[in-house]
Amino acid sequence: MKLIMLMGLCGLILLAGCTGLFKTGTIQEVNVHTGTKGITAMFLDQSPPPVTFMDAPFTASFELVNEGATDVEDGVFSVGIEDDFVTLQGDRIRAFSLYGKSLATPEGERQIQTVQLRARPLPPQTETVTTTLGLNVCYPYSTRAELTTCVDTDVFQRVKTKPCTAKAVSLSGQGGPVAVTRIEPTFAPHTDPNKVRAEFLIYIKNLGTGQVYDADKSLEACTPQALGSASWNVADIKAYLGDQQLDCTPKKQGFGGADGYLKLVNKEDFVRCEVQGGIAKTAGAYTTTMTIEVTYGYTFTLTKQVQIKRVT
Amino acid sequence: MTAGQVFMTQRAERPVGMFFMLVLLVHLIDIFLGRMGAKTASPMLLLILYVVILPFIGALGPFRKDTFWHSAKPFIYLVVLGAISYGIPLAVYNYLQPLNLDETLITAILLFAPFYPFWIYFTHYEDLGKWVRRSMNTYITIWVILLIISNPAWFQGFSEDTKRYLGQDSYSVSPGALILAQAKKAWVGAVQFYNASTTQPKQFLNQSIQQATGDAYTARVDKNAKLKLGVTIDDLKTTQASFSTTDRTGVFTTLSATTIEDPLLISIDCTAKDPKGSVISPDKRRVSPDTKEQAVEVLQEETLDIDCDFEPGALPVGRNTLTVAAQFEATTLSYVKTYLMDRERLRELRAAKIDPFQQYGITDRAPVTVYTSGPVSIGMSFGTPPIGLDATQDEFVGTLGITLKNELGGKIMNLSKLAVFVPQGFQLTEISGIAATFSKARCLDIAADWCDDSVSNLYIIDLTDPAPVEPGKSLTVRARVRAHRTDYERLLGATPISTRFFKTAAIYTYRLEKSITIDVKAATTGTPGAVAAEKVVLVGSPIVDPLANEANISFVTNVASASEVKYCQGSSTATCTLTTSSIPTPTTIHVHHLDGLQSKTRYAYDLYGFSSACPNNRCKLGDQSYTFDTQ
Q1: Is the confidence metric ipTM above 0.90 for this complex?
Q2: Domain of A275?
Q3: Which domains does chain B have, with CATH numbers?
C-alpha cells in the first residue's frame, strides 16, 4: 500500500515538472486590454556591469517593452549620468516608438537600446567610486476600458422581472498604468417626465509606479524644463454608452466639448459622465457596451549603480 | 454517518493521512504553480491530477474495497471531489472574473478552493493525527486571512502594492501569488534589516563624534575603500631596560605607510629633550633610515624599522624625552553630490505632491561628503538638495562650506593648497573664514588626468598664513558660489534632475610623532655597563613549544640583555609584516610567549639581543631565520 502511495507521490512530482506537456493546443482569444503596465524598462544583465574599471569603456543596455495595449509613437527617454565619473557618447535624449500588445504581438513590442559610456580616471587616493546611471522614460498613452453595463430606466424599481440590474462594477487593469477601477451607474428622474437621467461615476487610478502628466508634454517631462502649471497628474477622459458620447465633468479649463478632465490626487480621481438628453423611459432595462478612453502621458525612472574601481 | 464516510468501512487500517497529504500537495501545486499562483502548471495537468490520478490512488489505496468492482464506488466519489476542486478556480478565473463581477464575490467563492483537502479533513478528522490536524487548522486560518487581504475590494492598497511588487496583475485575487510576493518581500526586508543593522550603528557613531566636536560640515570616509591610507607609527620601545650616561641611549619603532598611485615621501626625524626641556644637539644622534638628504619613498604599502640612538653622555642624568617623527606630504580628496532642478518644475512637482527623489529614483536624499582615507577629513555642504535654479532670476548664489579636520594624532604642518572644484556653470566669487586668496586655474596647472575643465571649474585657494592644525582641530572655509542664468542649461543638463559634484583636494604636510621618556642614570664605578659592553650571542638553539594559537620560544644568550622576537606568518621574515615580542628586562634565559597565532600555520621568526656593542644596539641572534608550525 505504502509503495502505491510512494509511487503516486513520485508520479506527481514528475508530472509537476512536465508542465509544458499538458498545455492546451487550442487557439485562445487574447485580450490585450488587461494588466496595469504600459512601457516597461529593464537594464540588461551585466550591462551596465556592476563593477567596471577607471578609464575603461562600458555599455549600458536596457530593454523597453510595450506591455500595454496602446501603440507609442512619440516616446522619449533621457539618460542621466554623473559627468564627474562617466562620459557618454551620443545623444542623451532619444525618441522611441513601440507597438502595444495586439493579436500579432500578444506580449507587446520589445526594443533594446544601448548607450556607450566610459569611466573617467579616478581622483588621487581613491580606490573606487559608485556612480548612478538613470533612465527617464516618458510616453503618451491611453487606456481603453470596454464593458457591458446595464441601463435601467425603471428608476423606482417597479418592474420586478428585468433582463438586467444596474449596479456598480469594479475593474482591474485594462492594459495601461492608469486604469478605470470602478463604475457606479445612477438613474434618476429627468426634468422631462418621459425620460430618465443616466449618469455614471467613473473612477480612475494610477496603478503604476510612475507619474501621470499632460499627454502632449513628453519631451518636457523627460528633460529639465517645467511642464507648466496643472500639467502633472492630469488626464483626459472620454466615455461612450453604445455609440453616444457621454458628457463628462469636470472639464479642462477653457475647453468645451464632452471630454472630461482628471486631476489625480493621491493617484486617483473620478468624473461624472451623463447621457446627454437623458434616456427614454420606454427603453426599459437593457444591456449595452460602455467604452471609456483615458489619455495621458506617463513617466518613470530606472536607476542602476555602477562601481568604478582603480586598476592596480 | 457523513456522505464521505459512506464508502469507507476500514478507514482505521488505511493510510488516510498519507492520502490526505497527497491531496494537499496537489492543492498546493494548484495554488503556487497553477491557476492561483505563477500559472506555470498547465490546467490540463491539474485536471489529470484531480480527476484521474488522485481517484486512482484513493480507490486503490486507503478506500479500497474487497473486490475491484466494489472499489468503483469510492473511485467515483473521488472523481466528483476532484472535479469540484478543479472546477472552483476554473469557474472563477475563466468564467466569473471576465464578467467583471464584484471581487468580494470572487473571494467568497475562492474560499472553497481547498475543497478536496477540507473534505477529507472534516470527514476523517480522527484518522489524520494530531500534527496533521494542527497544521491543517493553521492552514485554514492562513487561507482565510490571505483571501481577505488579497481582495482589492477590501484592502485595495495592500493588494495593489503586492501586484506592483510581483509585476503581474492578471488576476486581482490570487492567493498563491500573494504568498510568494509576501515571502519575497519578507526576505528582501530581512536582508535590508541585516545590512542596516551591521553598517548603520558604526556610521551613526562616527557621525555623532564628528558633530559633537563642533564641525561645521561632516563627512564620511569612502565606504568602499579597503586600504587605510596614510602613515602610522608604533609606540616607541627602548633598546635597553635602563640607561646610564655611559650607554648609547636608543629607541626603535616601526612605521607603516600606505598610498595609492601617488608616492609618499617620508622624512624621519629623531629629537631628544633634556630634563630642562632643552633640545639635545642632533649631531650626537644616529637615525636609521637617514632621510636628511633624501626622503624615503613609499609607492604602495611598506613598513620601515626606525632606530634612533644618542651617543653615550649625550643625554644628561634625569628624565629625557626622545621623540621620533615622520613627516610626509599628503593629499586628501573629498566630494559631495548635489541635485539640481529647474525651480519651476520643482514647484510643480511639489504642488502635485510628487516627491522628486522618489520620482527620479534617488535613494541618497541627503548626500554626505565622501573623503579619501587618511589623516585629514574634508566635509562639504552646499544647501539642501534638490536645489532649484530659477529661470526668472538673473543669478543663483549659494554657499559652499568646507571643513578640514585633523583626524589623527599628528599635526597638519602646512596646508599649502586647497583645490576646489565647482560644477561647470558655477563660479567661485568670494571666500571667508580663513586668510587666503584664490585664483581660477586649469586642470593642466595641477597635472591631474582625472580633472576635466569641461566638467568642473577649478579654483586654487592659497592660505596666506597656514598655522599648524592640532589633532582633533578643524578649520572651515566658506566659499560664495554663483551661477548666471545663461549657465542654468549647462547645470541642469538633459535630464529632469541633474547630479553635480563639488570636490576639494587638500595638499598638506602632516607630521606624526611618538615620544618616550627615558630615565638616564649616572654611571656607577666598578662594572659600568658590564652587560651592555659585550656583544650578545645565542647559546645553543632556540626551543619552540607551539600550541594551536600560541607558542613559547625559549633561548639562552651569553650575557644578560633585553631581547626581542620578530615573527610573521610564512617561511621567511623577509617578505612579511613582522610582529614583535619584547622582554625589556636583561636576562640570559629568555622565554617569549607569542599569542594570537593561527592554528596549523607556519611562522618565521628572528631573534634579537640588545647591547651597546651591537650595531644600532641590536644584535641578531643566530645566523638564520627560524620557523615553527602551530598545531
Answers
A1: no
A2: 141-296
A3: 3-182 (no CATH), 230-328+513-518 (2.60.40.10), 330-509 (2.60.40.290), 529-629 (2.60.40.10)
